[in-house]
Amino acid sequence: MPFAYVDGEWRVAEHFFDSADLTEAQAYINNISSDKDSFFDAIVQENAWELAGEGMRKWDLIRWNLLVPKIKESKELYLQYLQDGTFKETVYFNYSDAAKTQIDMSSITWYTDPADITASDYDGSESSYGSSDITDTNDTQVYTNLPSISSGLVGSSIESLGISGTEPSVVNRYLMPIGSTTISASNGTLQNSYGYTN
To answer: Does residue 123 contact residue 115 with C-beta atoms inside 8 Å?
Structure first.
């Protein structure tokens, strides 16, 4: 993990950071409150950084009863980024051949335009994620792509967008149904989703 408990205190594991980021990382650790809720929140965030893309985070979020809130948070952030300009509206690029059939992949402005270069310096452009309109119910980013984020886990209904306060009907999506004896023993705490019968 990027953080290690050494000699009675939490320290940054130096091999995870280059020297320019070590001070900022250590300051983050030093500012984590020792109260239970703050420390738990730091663990949840560390878990996200450490295990991103490893297919394990879902199970931790379910264990912490945070799967739905975290997916909803991701969708709300996606919506926020569409509106505040975080995502680029246009991606520019150059071609690598005179016939303009091959795009020079190193020229694509995925995140920002290089300094001192304007749109006229590029051979072509394409509409990107940021060209979105939340008021248009036909907008692909808001009403198609956004609902699909983790829709297999919590459903893809409009309520799961984070636009309204309604919670999605699916709470935790499992590969297999929970056994009927387990559900009975839980005294109503556990239930199956997606039409699984008890």
So the answer is: no
Cα separation values, 69 from 141, 152, 172, Å: 21, 15, 11
Q: How far apart are the first and last CA of the chain?
A: 40
CA–CA separation, 158 and 3 (whole Å): 38
Q: Is 141 exposed, middle or buried (0-12, 13-18, 19+ CB in 10 A)?
A: buried
Residue with tokens 């705490």: 189
User: Chain centroid to CA 105: how far?
Assistant: 25
What's the DSSP call for residue 172?
-
Domain range annotation of the chain:
67-82+133-198, 90-127
The Cα–Cα gap between 98 and 13 comes to 49
- Mind listing the pLDDT tens digit of every residue in the chain (198 residues)? 455 555 655 555 555 667 777 777 778 777 888 788 988 888 888 888 777 777 788 888 888 888 878 888 888 888 888 888 888 888 999 999 999 999 999 999 888 777 778 888 999 998 887 878 877 888 888 878 877 777 767 766 655 554 554 555 566 666 667 788 988 898 878 877 665 554
pTM greater than 0.70: no
